[in-house]
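Researcher: First entry.
Model:
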Amino acid sequence: MITPAQAAQILLDRRAARNELLAFTTLTNPYYVAADFHKRICLALEAIERGDIDRLMLFLPPRTGKSELGSRRFPAWYLGRNPLRQVICASYSTDLAVDFGRDVRNMVNSPEYKAIFPAVELAQDSQAANRWHTNHGGSYVAAGVGASITGRGADLLNIDDPIKDRREADSKTVKDALWAWYRSTAYTRLMPKASIVLTQTRWSPDDLAGRILNQKGEKWELIEFPAINDKGEALWPERYPRSELDRTRAVIGEREFSALYQQKPMPDEGTFFQRNWFGWYDPKELPECRKYMTSDFAVTEDDGDFTSIATHGVDANDDIYVAIDYWTGQTSADHWIDEICHQILRNKPMAFFGEGGPIRRSIEPFLLKRMRERKAFCRVDWVPSIADKTSRARAIQARASMGKVKLPNNEWGYSILSQLLSFPAGLNDDDVDMLSLLGRVIDEAHPATTTTKIIERPKDRYDRLFEQSNQEHTWRM
């Protein structure tokens, strides 16, 4: 016998489940334990359901609950709130897609679901695991990527893990076929104002997500969760602590870990830059260096491009120690101008270099003003802009090819290496541009990067005679 208070709480929980995906998930799966990043995923999926966004990518490491939320709970919750709409869910194989379809169907047919959405149930004449309808005329279709879905419409196209394994990820034939299916089959099924959710672990720079992001014409909301963030913290320490992640990295290797766990896919070898050119250094054992700062600024906040700011070291042998201090992000100018000041105060560099042109004109007054306010004094120089990115990078490419460029053995270094190996075809190149600026100023012997040495004239016999005379005079005294 439940008490009135318990009955009231049950009604409140059901109301919350109708309106919030996370509440729906925990009510229909009492064993589900949500971390902070799961809450952010739920908020993004709720925005899809409301129509606030219509293109969403979610990148997460393996075994972090992405399918439970994206392919099981979300479609069921979505149809509960929109029983007239049509949903297509696809995965790398028909069997896996059908398993998801069966789970969603059984959830819709459960007593818990009916208590939350009492007006929604399965149609009596259409309840197959791979295709079923609601009693309002809405539908759910499960399909493997590459399978025909002709004749089906989608208000929601939900794609979960379109790549099965490394063999498929490295197969150009498989990736080309997946790309053709997405464009000619899946995308043509979209209804007016339809939404797409792509949830996956990254495999390669040109996987389905990479190819979509390299296209122009659509704006995608991108939410990615690396297993280890830039601060060295584990994404889900209660389940996968940093020690366990480090062990995984040691076993599977840097390429796999960077792609599957860090969402930073990189090729085995690069083209413009090659993996074996770069050495590694321990940030805790940095030799004595001259320090310089370089940057690559993104003009618009949250517009796909990143701002990268880093402090580098150059030792007596002209070896370059990249990113002894580093920051990257998609923020407004006031935020990254303060980050420039932070690094100046922490590292006392000999100079800060930025690229000239429109960006200089827009930020230089504010930058100098903020530096004076924070007493972050440093020489600031602006290097003429070069439109061709590969031309910009030639100087740092040459030094890297001679083994003169070392990366920090941390998350910063792995991320920067990923961009270098993907250049010039990669999705992002802000770190490459930032490093290119350093290569240019060193190669061109910019005054701020040169040191003046006093070279003594060789002594002739008159100098030696004069020194001897002084010594004798001093002795006699």
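Researcher: Second entry.
Model:
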Amino acid sequence: MVSIIVEETAELKGSIAAPPSKSYSHRCIIAASLSKGKSLIASPLFCDDTYATIKACTALGVSIKQADNSLEVVGPSQLKAPRAAIDCGESGSTIRFLAAVAALAKGKTVLTGSPGLLGRPIGPIVEALQQLGVDCTSNDGFPPVTVFGGGIRGGSASLVGDVSSQFVTGLLLACPMAERDTEIKLTTPLESKPYVELTIDVIRRHGVKMQASKGLRRFTIPGGQQYSPGNHSVPGDYSSASFLLVAAAITGSRIRVENLQPDQPDIAIIDILERMGADINVSDGVVEVSGGSLRGVDIDARDIPDLVPPCTVLACFSSGTTRILHAGRLRIKESDRLATLPSELRKMGAKIIEGEEGLTIRGPCELKGGRVSSSNDHRIAMACAVAALKARDKTEILGVECVDKSYPSFFEDLKKLGGDVHS
């Protein structure tokens, strides 16, 4: 287990490029893998999760070559099931997306992962695939998943929309290649809508057609389609950049984060920072933060679950009460974030009340250093590091290697901006 020390930092300054979007990278790699021919992906994110997707697609017969800061992906005429099980590591996106894609591969595919991943639900997409004629099983609703491929019949499938949008994305990726038309109906409102919109945008760039209802509760996908090769340039990730933006706001610093294009998931962090009093300027893919007088607000996390950790830290240094609402899905992430966030930040002196579906934070809090744990959760590690920048004395964070899951250069970037970070 690797630990790192973060000490109180008076000021951050400078510019940094946001890391490429993990969500976009996953989807581009898979859409390119389903295309017969060569696709180029410029500036993808290289991290543990995207490497899991690259390895999984390669195991299904896709040729993927890394050159400098790009990927060349050549999809085969027919996906083929591998002899060995596909290890998806800690990546929920990989196993949920590939569970559907594996139905298109000839033969038996087994998808498994780390102990943490084996505790994350997969039942809804397995049940939906069964409704569409796929022979597949799970371990009582959890991985490993066994898929007996050869094609997807199509037809009608229903599933919940408020457990994980990744189930919907998996079906949207695979079902255009079903034998006949597919209709997907959600029995509960879809949460994390921007991520499904991102999926639709990516696959349409590969020539795939589908229709979605206004509220994204119903999807109609013509069957028998083929993906066409397509090229992508992956934009910066607002989810990861949010930690840097919050770090600037709570330390009263002025920084610039570049490579942040509009219309990306989690751009909502800009509105949240503005509502809480931070001075924000956005232009030409650059977001500039200049501190501000921070105040508590209500935050609806229904579509932005990944922003809850940085927003919780932001709330700790804001006057008044912040309520984070509709965040129940955080209990089935890499850790139970609704429990882990309060537990670790309270060790530093934060005033946080855990609810069944959210958090209540009373600020401003006077945080002090100490020893905290990432709980092997990348967003917990980054949240604790940002909080430590404004805490008295030094803070030791245990298990920081987990940031390799989504933002391998996080601590380097924090240091480049002037953060007091050392081993």
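Model: Note on the second entry: The CA atoms of residues 121 and 142 lie 5 Å apart.
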